[in-house]
Structure formats: structure tokens, C-alpha cells
Amino acid sequence: MRKQLALLLAFTAVLFALTGCGSSGYSTSTISQAGSYAVREDMAAPAAESPMVAEATESGVNSPTAAPSGYERKLVRNMNITLETLTYDQGLEDLRALTEQLGGFVQNSRIQGKSLNQSNQPRTAYFSLRIPSGKLDELLNRMGESFNLLDVSESTDDYTDQYFDTESRLRALRLREERLLELLSKTARLEDLFQVEQELSQVRYEIESLTGSQQKIDSMVQLSTVEITLSEVVEYQEQVAPVKTFGQELRQALRSSWNGFVRGCQLFVLTLAAALPYLLVLFAVGLVVFLIAWRSAKKRRSAPPIPPTHTQGFPPEPPVNPEQ
User: Fold this and answer.
1) CA–CA gap between residue 281 and residue 272 (Å, rounded)
2) What are the start-end ranges of the H helices in 20-146?
3) Which of 15, 217, 229, 247 is 20 to 30 A (C-alpha) from 57?
């Protein structure tokens, strides 16, 4: 019984090591734990002598990472579309209705409204849609009927090898789960029972993780992601200037000239009002300077004349008699 238990545990350890190649998600502690079963002194047996290990190796447990040529391709298509519309509110309703008609749904959206300060600013909406991959071409055709297709870009990602590799690992893990269940039914010791249950829980966790990865790829393959930018535009209308007669041009010239004269007078008054405080200060300073100069001149006029002095060496000239 113990020898059979050792052989089964050795097989699970080797099987786990083979399936763990290339997968970082597998726990290394599980390998060492499974190996500890095989090296127990009372259960030791060479793994190479196990017929089940040889059978598992011959059945191709060590699966390749690349998918064979006939394997179904797992292609994920994604699109980025830029649209323009003259009727923004109606365009939002049409876009949502078209998504529902094609069997898709709106994953994310962001819609801009009008600002009270900038009522003429164009609005923009952003959508992230999930559309069935087989209806992407129909989506483009129907959008071209209701909107102006400004830009369309498409990308395709190939997940075939990743999907095939995950599928191979799942097969190996399910085989390992069956072996552990068989071992669990034959184990009698409580210590061995506890260790096998731990190993079984780890295997089931890895199976659930890889199954989730497969389901995610299936979802991306079936439903493509379409990123849409919807912008509001205004129809351009060319403005044609009307032809004016001579009388209209004359009236316009007179009106412009009179408006210019009135505006010039207004600017003069405004400039004068702005400079009035400075003018008053200058006037006061000038008035003070004028009064000082006027008083100084008045004092000079009212003072007695200064008599002339004799020149050294010459007698003074006699006064001139006006009667002579």
C-alpha cells in the first residue's frame, strides 16, 4: 500500500513539473511538497520505474506552446472610430440604439454638455462599446448612414497560441486531479490524507485560474471593443456680402466720419478728465511762482535810485542846464 502511494505521489510530482514548464502561475512550493512525499523513507521509489509516469510521458503531457496548423484561430478585433454629427443629441440616441440592435452594449461612456459661459462651444462624447465580432462591418456601414466617418482604425490580436497552451495545461491538471482523487480514496493515514487534500486544493485553484483565462479570451473573441469619439459640428455657410449703391456708400462714409469725430471728442474729454488732477497741481505751482516773481519786481521798482559814484582821477561833470 505504501509503495503504491509513493508511486502515485511521485507521478503527480513529475506530472506537475512537466505541466509547470513555461507557466509562472504554478506554485513551486507545491512541487517541493509533492517531492517530499516521494522521498519519504517508507515510501521511496524511483520515479523512472513508475509505469504511470512513463504512460503519462508517452501520452504527451508536456504539451507544446504553439498551436497546430488546424487549430481554430482566436483573433481579437478592436476598432477606434471618430464620428461627426450636426445633430448631437439625436446622434447620441442613434448610437445607443444601434449598439442594442447589433447585440452589443455600452461598456463605458463620457458625454460633454454645453457650458453656460460658452454656449457655442462644440460638444464631444466618448463611448467604449462591446460589439459581436461578426457585426463590425455592419456597424461601420450603418454608422456611415447616420454620421460622418472621420477616422477608422482597426487592430487584430492573435491569442491562438496562448489559448492552446492554456488548454493543454488544463488537460494535464485535470488528469493530475483525477490521480489525486484516486490517491485520496486509497489513503488511510491522517497525515497523508491532509497532505493530499492540500495538493488537490492547489491543483483545483490552478484549474479555476486557467479556466478564467480561457473564458476571458473567448469573451474578447466574441465581443470586440469599439472606442468611439462623437463630435458636434456646425454646417459651414458662406457669407456673401451684398452689393452697395453709391448712396449707401456715401451715407456709410458720412456716418463713419461723424462717429469718428464724436469718438474723438469723447476721447479728448476723457483724457482731459484723467489729467485734471495733474493740471490743477501744475496750475497751483505756476501761480505761486508768478506771485513771487511779481512781488520781487514790484519791490525793485519802488526802491530809490542809487546815485552814481565818481570815477577815480576825473572830476564830476557839471549838470547840464536845459535852458542853455
Assistant:
1) 14
2) 28-38, 51-58, 88-101, 136-146
3) 217
